[in-house]
């Protein structure tokens, strides 16, 4: 199960903090839908904080890719921050680090906007 918390940080950045397992299931779809709704509602700078994600599978990678695609289509920017070594190794192995930016922390991701 994935828990999702949304917060704002200056300047006009939406942080989506996910916790649990980024894995196949209904909660993954709900998290994807909520992120897409935020982008559709006008959030132009989105950071997906994975610091509380234990692990991810291919469905989780797919969700991140779909959200990134939605952001690009909406002329928004999405960054991923805080992934632990286990999650980071999956992101690198699947080469998604070549598609969207990965940062150590939300603060580092925010500084790059």
Would you kindly provide a written description of the structure presented here, covering whatever features stand out?
- The chain is an alpha/beta fold and 113 residues long.
- The protein has helices at 26-40, 58-73, 85-93, 106-111, and strands at 2-9, 13-22, 45-56, 77-81, 102-103.
- A five-stranded mixed β-sheet has the order 1-2-3-4-5.
- It contains four helices and five strands; from the N terminus they run E-E-H-E-H-E-H-E-H.
- Helix content is 41%, strand content 33%.
- The protein starts with a strand and ends with a helix.
- The model has no long low-confidence stretch (mean pLDDT 95).
- A hairpin with a 3-residue loop joins strand 1 and strand 2 (13-22).
Quick structural summary:
The protein has four helices and five strands; from the N terminus they run ββαβαβαβα.
Strand order of the largest sheet: 1-2-3-4-5
Largest beta-sheet characterization: 5 strands, mixed
User: What share of the residues does DSSP label as strand, in percent?
Assistant: 25-35%
- Any idea what the radius of gyration is? 12 Å
- Overall mean pLDDT score? 95
Order of helix and strand elements from N to C terminus: EEHEHEHEH
Counted by DSSP, the helix tally is 4
Classify the secondary structure makeup into a structural class.
alpha/beta
Uncertain parts: none
Distance between the termini: 30 Å
In helices, the fraction of residues equals 40-55%
Shape estimate: globular
Give the strand tally: 5
């Amino acid at each position: 199960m994935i828990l999702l918390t949304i917060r704002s940080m200056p300047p006009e950045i939406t942080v989506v903090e996910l916790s649990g397992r980024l894995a196949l299931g209904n909660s993954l779809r709900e998290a994807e839908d909520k992120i897409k709704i935020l982008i559709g509602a006008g959030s132009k700078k989105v950071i997906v904080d994975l610091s509380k994600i234990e692990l991810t599978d291919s469905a989780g990678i797919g969700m991140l890719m779909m959200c990134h695609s939605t952001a690009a289509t909406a002329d928004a920017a999405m960054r991923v921050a805080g992934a632990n070594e286990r999650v980071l190794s999956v992101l690198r192995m699947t080469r998604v680090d070549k598609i969207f930016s990965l940062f150590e922390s939300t603060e580092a991701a925010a500084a790059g906007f």
